[in-house]
Batch of 2 targets.
Target 1
Amino acid sequence: MGSLRREGDGDQGCVMSSAGEAFIQQAFNLIDGFDDMSDPLDVQQRVLDLVKDCGFTFFTITRLPQPSERLAPNVLLSSWPKGWLSHYDRVGHYRYDPVVRHCYRTIEPFAWTEVHYEPEILPRARRVMDEAADHGMAVGFCVPIHDAMGFQAVVSLAGQQVEMPPRVRRGVHMLGLYAWGAAERTTARRRKPTGRLLSTRERDVLSWAALGHTSDEIAAILGISCQTVNTHLKNARLKIGTRNTTHTVVEALRRREITL
């Protein structure tokens, strides 16, 4: 993998101090303009037009699903190379992607070259990154997103050769945070409601479980038997595909089946 070049003696692109200041100003202008945008493709193109001056030619804004899930249904905006996302999901890259794994470990923005490859997944992790490079994404930069409920998302930018001095890096970080908000807002209207996976009673039981109540306590609160509570918990686990109540609660919260 290549490395992101930092500010040095050159005077090209974002490396120039004056160009860096210009980028920051343009980023602020774009952030101010997000409020007036209603078309997600407009958000996507405007972000891409700005960051391409640093060498980024591709980017995506996506929620981060569980390892067993596909990435594609969670993508809000994407200018990834044609065929990459379908290939990525088809061969199961998401589970082994070292960049994705790093997003769960930090709230700080990071270059792909700063990512540690876990030994147990090293061959698959290298395959993910090598194939990304083959698709024109040799280097990249990520802005992890963590909302108030703790759910993860990421703004990921990539290209063949990137120039990004520290000040511009901070500007891209700021831009990524606001771009996520704009993507979430503008795509909300076009996303089709998926409907509820869990029944009303299953959501009731999980909501009380999320507050730390035992099966016996939930049974008393809802006026049903403990066996019925456990049946609802089991059915919720089967529907969501989880192994225990704690995991089911976490997934139900993430999927907005329940709220606290």
Target 2
Amino acid sequence: MAERGSVHYQSKGETTEWEDILIKKGIVEKDDVLRGKGIDPDEQRLEEAIGKAREAEVERLNARTIEDDMAEASLEELDELEDELADDGMLEKYRAQRVAEMKAKAAAAKFGELFEISKADWVREVTDASKSVCVVAHLYEDGVVECRVMEAALRSIARKFREVKFVKIRSQQAVENWPEANLPTLFIYRDGALATQLIRIDALGGKQMEADDLEWYLASQGIVETEMDENPARAKGRGANSIKMRRGVKSAGRRGSDDDDDDDDGDY
């Protein structure tokens, strides 16, 4: 039996009722109380955050319905669900929806490479084309090493995101007297107008920039839909820029042009 007047608390970092009163009144700091129990406050907060995330995930999964599963299922998964469903009409509805989505995606995937254009092509291949698809135009010059780095990354990205149109043009053809110090430059067009631009690639790793760095940037602008969960620069030990990722934006980037033109190379 516990001694009379003794106070008990669990060893996972919980505070007693009396300690909570002192903390609330500002007499003591919670971190100091935890340290007095041999508990690292930062680790405690991390454990609490992980616990809350797990609880939220459990609640989300418990709240899912068979309709939720079907709405996200592939054709193969829908076939597997067939035996579990009594409503064949519902199954056919979602199967038809998935087939339509697949056909739409296949129809949009019509590019897949980096096209060279000239000044005479600009209106047709960039301005007019951007009324139906996103267009990324690379301004380059052969003598700039970073332009070759950008081109290699763009070719890889173009093969992966075939629904976006990628073109390149010599900078002096695109914009007369465009400074070589601004190269490489990306002009990104939507809805028939310039939506944003990237000047130089210093913020993406400079000469060490790779395709995944560029993919992360384009995803931050709503041009492609990446499956990456975090800025690849972190894994490469370069730190990470404060990119505000727009989740749920489709690769075609058909959203309102609510972004101001970005003319710097670091603030994205």
